[in-house]
Amino acid sequence: MKLVEVEGTHTLQTTYSSLDVHVGQSYSVLVTADQPGQDYYVVASSRFTSPIITTTGTVHYANSAGAVSGPPPGGPTIQVDWSLNQARSIRTNLTASGPRPNPQGSYHYGLINLTKTYVLENSAGQVNGKQRYGVNSVSFVPADTPLKLADYFKIGGVFRVGSISDKPTGGGLYLDTSVLGADYRTFVEIVFQNNEDIIQSWHLDGYSFFVVGMDGGQWTTASRDAYNLRDAVSRCTTQVYPKSWTAIHIALDNVGMWNLRTEFWARQYLGQQLYLRVYTSSTSLRDEFPIPRNARLCGRASGQRTRPL
């Protein structure tokens, strides 16, 4: 399989015999039909699970001389290092699909100064005798009004910016409507720290980000020495391996209240998510359009009036 695209990004055309596709991710590959004319297995199997779940398909040539034979090929199942190294090998093709004479890689994200670093650590625990999951000790609970509406209409008491720390606290889980504050048009770093034994997958609404680094153990500022600051892939969902970290860089060019969440739905429902509030005091249409006049309003925003366009 020759990898050619990842979530809208043209990649270096590397050939793989198998690909790890994590929750919420997508890949495009080319397969050259140059083998003898018979049927061949295509296998998809789960990774890092017990038991391993496998399903198969068949590549069938029009002139196939015979059916598939033998057991389906086995794939790597528990080798975290193998998967980690493959993820690092997936890089942007800097000479593809760019407006000439400027190449695609003319946006040098690695030369932009970081404004702020957020370190987000996932965890599990009990709150009031019930299973919960959280980030930096906060297990998210929804407010009675959509956060974007509360922010737009300046309704107090719905959420509090800074209700979640921008780094791990080491404390036990507690419930809150977690909102991180960030400034519009800044360039920030988010580090996902996973000290648990399962793989994580994180998605950020409203943005694509550069996956600049991942490795085992605890992230430190020295970890930046191994970052890919030239041709990292831009995507909106990234994996974090067990007992490992993943770092991303984001240009915050989209005003709003954006959900940052695990793609593990049970954990998401039970609190492993938060909101990133990208804020500007500007009311210019250049920065953000007002809410449409026919928008449905609810909660404490019921009865509010939207501004005309």
Break the fold down into its secondary structure elements and pairings.
Layout: E1 2-6, E2 9-10, E3 27-30, E4 40-45, E5 54-59, H1 80-89, E6 116-127, E7 130-135, E8 138-140, H2 147-152, E9 174-176, E10 179-183, E11 187-194, E12 200-204, E13 209-216, E14 234-235, E15 237-240, E16 244-251, E17 256-262, H3 265-269, E18 273-279
Parallel strand pairs: 6-11, 8-9, 10-18
Antiparallel strand pairs: 1-2, 1-3, 4-5, 6-7, 11-16, 12-15, 12-17, 13-14, 13-16, 17-18
Domain Plastocyanin-like: 1-63, 144-281
InterPro entries: Cu-oxidase_2nd, Cu-oxidase_C, Cu-oxidase_fam, Cupredoxin, CuRO_3_AO-like
Protein name: Plastocyanin-like domain-containing protein
Describe the structure.
This protein has 309 residues and is mainly β. Helices cover 7% and strands 33% of the residues. It is built from 3 helices and 18 strands. The strands form 5 sheets. The protein has a 6-stranded mixed beta sheet with strand order 7-6-11-16-13-14, with no helix packed on it. A 5-stranded mixed beta sheet has the order 10-18-17-12-15. The chain has a 3-stranded antiparallel beta sheet with strand order 2-1-3, with no helix packed on it. The longest helix has 10 residues, at 80-89. The model has no long low-confidence stretch (mean pLDDT 93).
